[in-house]
Amino acid sequence: MSVDIRSMTKEELAEWLASFKEPKYRGNQIFQWLHREKALSFDEMTNLPLTLRTRLKETAEIRPLAIKERQVSKADGTEKLLLETVDGCLIETVLMRYEYGLSACISSQAGCRMGCTFCASAKGGLVRNLTPSEMLEEVFLFEREKKEPVSHVVIMGTGEPFDNYENLMRFLSLLTHEEGRNLGARHITVSTCGLAPKIRSFADEGLQVNLAVSLHAADQERRKELMPVAKSFPLPELMDACRYYIKKTNRRLTFEYSLVKGKNDSLEASRALISLLKGMNCHVNLIPVNNVTESGYERPGKETIRAFQKSLEDAGIPATVRRELGPDINAACGQLRARRTVTVHTIRET
Ligand code: SF4
After folding, report:
1. In this predicted model, what pLDDT tens digit does every residue of 254-279 receive, in sequence order?
2. Is 129 within 8 Å of 164 (Cβ atoms)?
3. For residue 256, which of 139, 129, 127, 118 has the smallest C-alpha distance?
């Protein structure tokens, strides 16, 4: 079986090359080709001897992602790609343009087993974890195409990043490596649905990477309805982990709160949220949901959204409403993949 060479750390690469008597500096050269030049083939590595390139071709692979479908928003240029891994898994990646540059929202798993009821990605369950190399490729693919660097990466697409913790950590260390892609850790945000023990582990890693926690409801019963993960990690346990994170890292935590009409958008719900978050070094990102036909969830009206935001701000909790990107392509995660997965199944069955 070929080695997944782009998922290797610089040290592992040097060790692997040493096993067939290649000097250490070859490892540095290959690491730079893979992570700085974003090479997709060993033939591009022109400063390596032909014999080594041949050996690499025989023993290692740089797993590409194939573009199966592309949607581009006419409203704001947001691009959503449906990508296929070498073994046929489908994932989604979104590229958004902000005034500060390009931001890629990437997937960490093919599918997801967390089962959030408002999410299209949850419908088919988990297929498999993505490798660090595949996560890197979700970023590199855009940079190759656009010929400009992606300035921010959010791991908020399909999948629960902390359910793929080891690969996530390796991805972060490769993406921020100063001899590789060297993206600033503060330009990266990891989003979790609330795996409390992993929030504590993440706090202990000592990284400058931002953390966002999907809350979506401020009381345990309602949260359980929206997010089955709340059964395993109830709200008090989650909030303890969040407080631990803030204390340990001295960093501001973002809480994501999807607003679902009639479910969690009332002023009573906002009061519960205020009493839960009061005194914490945090920020609330309100995300009015996209309408997902199967779940029947609807987006609240503009006035309800504004009133919810104002009540938080009046209580001293900074709150923003996420800008709706690519409204004409339905940029919320999982929807393109969900549709395509259904299509693929239909084709296979006939
Ligand atoms: S919202 Fe995130 S964690 Fe929840 S099911 Fe969807 S992809 Fe998984």
Report:
1. 999 989 898 889 999 999 999 999 99
2. yes
3. 118
Euclidean distance between CA atoms 229 and 286, whole angstroms: 20
The domains of the chain are located at 3-61, 66-349
Average pLDDT over residues 121-137: 93
Q: Confirm or reject CATH 3.40.30.10 for domain 66-349, answering yes or no.
A: no
The structure tokens listed for 208 are: 């400058």
Nearest atom within ligand 1 for CA of residue 156: 2
Q: Report how far ligand 1's centroid is from the alpha carbon of 103 (Å).
A: 20
CA 40 remoteness from chain centre: 22
Task: Annotate 163-206 with DSSP letters as a single string.
Answer: GGHHHHHHHHHHHT-TTTT---GGGEEEEES--HHHHHHHHHTT
Residue whose CA lies nearest to ligand 1 atom number 4: 116
* Class (C level, CATH) for 3-61: mainly alpha
To the nearest whole percent, how much of the chain has pLDDT over 90?
78
Measured from CB, residues less than 6 Å from any atom of ligand 1 are 112, 114-116, 119, 121-122, 158-160, 193
| 301 Cα: distance to centroid of ligand 1 (angstroms) | 24
Q: Which atom of ligand 1 is nearest to the CA of 109?
A: 7
CB–CB of 45/6 below 8 Å?
no
Q: What are phi and psi of 314, to 5 degrees?
A: -60, -25
Could you tell me the pLDDT band of residue 348, with boundaries at 50, 70 and 90?
Answer: very low
Protein residue with its CA nearest to atom 6 in ligand 1: 119
Q: How many angstroms is it from 145 CA to the middle of ligand 1?
A: 28
Q: Do domains 3-61 and 66-349 have the same CATH topology?
A: no
Q: Which residue has the higher pLDDT, 294 or 310?
A: 310
Find how far residue 227's CA is from the centre of its chain. 18
Q: Which residues are the active-site residues?
A: 92, 333
